[in-house]
Amino acid sequence: MRKISKLGRGLSKLGQQTKRTLNKVIDPDKEKREARNAKLRKKYANDVEFRKKCEARRIALKEKRKLEREKKLSKIKIEKTRCFFCCRKDKKIDMHHPDYTKPKFVIPLCRKCHLRLHALKRMEKELK
Question: Where in the chain are the domains?
Answer without folding.
Answer: 31-76, 79-128
